[in-house]
Amino acid sequence: MFKKYIPFLRANLMTMLTYRGTIIAWFLVETFSLVMMIFLWQTIYKGQSEINGFGINEIIIYFLIVGLLGIFASSDAMYTVSEELKQGQISMYLIKPINYKIRVFFGELGNKIGLVSVMIPVSIIVIFIASMIWNLNFDFTIFDLLLFILFIPLAFLLIYEFSYLFGLLSIYTTNVFGLSILLNIIISITSGQLIPLNFYPKSVLFIVSLMPFQYVYNFPANILLGEISYLNAIIGLLILIVWICFFKVVNHLVFKFNEKKIVIFGG
């Protein structure tokens, strides 16, 4: 069924592996940001053993986990869809016997496989070095790890669906730059990527809890930190699946609506 989409996966995978310099540059930027974040939190914790239930050991581990999740929880679908709308390339796919969204997904999957194959070994080394420097104590069970791993592909699917939706919306803006900023702000603030959600005021935390992005960073990170029970972790998995299905339906409806209104720019 998906055999006809494999060439798109292979093409993006080869492109990603060919331009490894992009991956290296991305890694250096992310590593530098992570180190600066750790130094910032060490300054905040100076003279304090715990803030909002997090000790300095837990906060460093939290951001190491967030950095690892960031490898998976990203998608360029928004840029792909927007560019193909502007260039007129989408018209070629609409007349072919393929599903456009699945085609974009397999391209994204190729990018992700290429990124993961390079970044995971390096990230493991970085985490090991960081654990030695800051004397970190990773205390989680095998079941915690398994639950954490289950969140990874689901987090990728959620971000992909959300990014794809913003790509479809770019037909109304003709430029994806503003949308990309909005998308990144929404995800970074409501997911726990910038700061653990435990640090938010209760009023803000209530609003954030109504959104799905806490299950991308904050929720799985807290599973490894032992802050979430097995039952709540499984409930979180189910909620994440429901959100993915919700965005799939929304994307289907938006695409069908846009299909009648597509205006090809430049092609």
Can you give a write-up of this model?
- By secondary structure, the protein is mainly alpha-helical.
- The protein has one domain.
- 72% of the residues lie in helices and 0% in strands.
- It contains eleven helices and no strands.
- Helix 2 packs antiparallel against helix 3.
- The longest helix has 34 residues, at 100-133.
What key phrases describe this protein's structure?
267 residues, mainly alpha, 11 helices, 72% helix, 0% strand
Question: SSE layout and pairings?
Answer:
Elements (H helix, E strand, L loop, with lengths): L5 H13 L1 H25 L11 H17 L4 H11 L2 H5 L5 H34 L8 H28 L7 H15 L10 H8 L8 H7 L5 H30 L8
Helix pairs in contact: 1-6, 2-3, 3-6, 4-7, 7-10, 7-11
Beta-strand content = under 5%
Please, what is the average pLDDT?
Answer: 87
Main sheet characteristics: none
Helix content: over 70%
Low-confidence parts lasting 5 or more residues at pLDDT below 50?
none
SS elements, strand count: 0
| Overall 3D shape | globular
> What is the terminal separation in angstroms?
31 Å
Total separate domains: 1
The sequence of SSEs as H and E is: HHHHHHHHHHH
Based on CA atoms alone, the radius of gyration comes out at 20 Å
The tally of helices reads 11
Q: Strand pairing plus helix content: what structural class? A: mainly alpha
